[in-house]
Amino acid sequence: MDIQKVKEKINLAKVVSFDVFDTLLFRITSSPEVIFDLTGEKFGIDNYRNLRMKSQQEISRIVLKSGKAPHADINEIYTYISEKNPGYDWDKVKNFELDIEKASVIRNSEIYEIYQYAVEHGKRIIAVSDMYLDGYFIEELIKQCGYVDIQKVYCSANLKKTKYEQTIFEEVAKREKVRPEEIIHIGDNQKSDVELAKKSGWDAIWYDTEQQTELRPGSFAGLGKKLHKNASFWYLLGGDIAGNLYVNLYRWLQKQQHKYECDKICFLARDGYNMYQICKKVNENHVIYLEMSRRSLLLAGITELDDESLKLLPPYALGQTIAEILNYLGIDEGKCEYIPAGFQNSQDVIINDELRERMKHFFKVNEKIVLEACEKEREYAKQYFEKKGVLDSKVLYFDCGWNGSSQYLLKRFYRVLGKKKEVPFVYVGIMDTEKSRKQLNGLPYSTYLFGIEKNPNIAKELKKAIVIPELFFGAPHPSVWYYGENGEVVYEKEEMNKQKKEIAKGIEDYFNHIYPFIEKYEICISGKEIVTDMQRLIDAPSKREAVMIGNIENADGFVKQKNLKKYIARLDMSTIRKYPRIEIYWKKGLLKRPDISLGVKLYVVLKEAVKNILKSVR
């Protein structure tokens, strides 16, 4: 809609008329019928949506046939339902529907700008709606959303005239005491708000809501578009895919804090950033943001190079040089010995598992240097933890999860400091692997979505492209590398992906609108709806999603390699030839992209097929 042209038309009109729903107001629900679903769930009425809609249609036909009105109003609908379905307090059900309807509406910021223009230019402003709700009730909805200068609401339920019958337009013009052509009407329905209005002599403008979302159907789908019509792809992705997950996670976290009897929740960087921002606004005194990474505590918990410690050290992927590994660990490559460990120099590349194993011998050869680095990092890490006040506090730690490495490393760190305290963790999910079982053995923790012997099917689906759920547990700051003197946080040198901030904002806005609503009305968002959102994105992305997400470079968790740019789902044959063992992070994203060659797609499919065959043979 061209705002300037709308304003020009307003200048010529005496009366400015607005449609109500999906024009002046939006519902936070994905459709009006979701209100019926939520009402039915509240009172335990099975399939209430169908009952409510069918009853409205039936009583409207009866009313129309009697000649009393073109359709039934809210009172007639519920009178009809109560007569046909005894056994419920239908007045109570009706009042709940009206209450939840009132709580679900938000102002359309784009239309509000036009409304303000009309107010500033002294125009008479009215609202016209085909609706079963009473006009006085609609007026309450409008005014609670800030449209306090709308002077009259004309509703079909009161006037007994409608847009679709083309009878309301003449009646409104008559009551407004203006000629039809002196009214400009703005609405979202091309037929009733534009075509029929113009046939009645009014000027009319179609307001294209553009709320169709490619992301998913759901109770609150499309909310981001309603809040910000021109919102970025990333903003919409954050709310539409992860919004419900964060709402339910927040509820679950409160229960876990009570379960573990902890005074505060400590959110680990960077996975806990978004949830920290949400919780901080609710109760700032009960949350801590701990800038910590697996790398930052890797050396701090090592006092000897036993087998357990050696298994923790890199390389974590083939293709790295020894120099890259030592730089990652903060060890001076010039002080190390290479020949005794079977290497030539720091530029040797770890290209196979044999050389990966040889690196353990390299660390043993240079044990003194390695342990000096460990002692130094331990002292600085201790200083940071003391500043944050968590060393001697009883806190509950939040991490995204997958293998429990953060809890394992934190426990090792506390142990070498002589702290015998428990370190309870809560996770979004933990994969059931040999590594997770070993690392979490005997440690106190709980999982929300999946865990060891818990919801294995969910874990299996998300594991197909674990990089996708990780998108929604990032932070708009670099990863913590290590702690410097006086506990100063030293970050890794990396370019920040701008989408993280937008994703976080989308999640936060979704939460701020939906959480109070569902909490007030005790609404339960099903686990199926939460997981389906993520599974759909992993298995059936749109082309736009595949390209936009696939182009993200060096996502969280990617092992860095010199001269190699890694993307979530972007690959070419030259890279494959140079790095034949390069990881495939999101297969369905790669295959969906229209700009990826057939040769690359064939390679991806064959590589996975060979991998599955080898796995079955083993």
From TrEMBL:
InterPro entries, alphabetized: HAD-like_sf, HAD_sf
Alphabetical list of SUPFAM superfamilies matching this protein: HAD-like (SSF56784)
Pfam families recorded: Hydrolase (PF00702)
Highest taxon in the source lineage: Bacteria
Name of this chain's protein: HAD family hydrolase
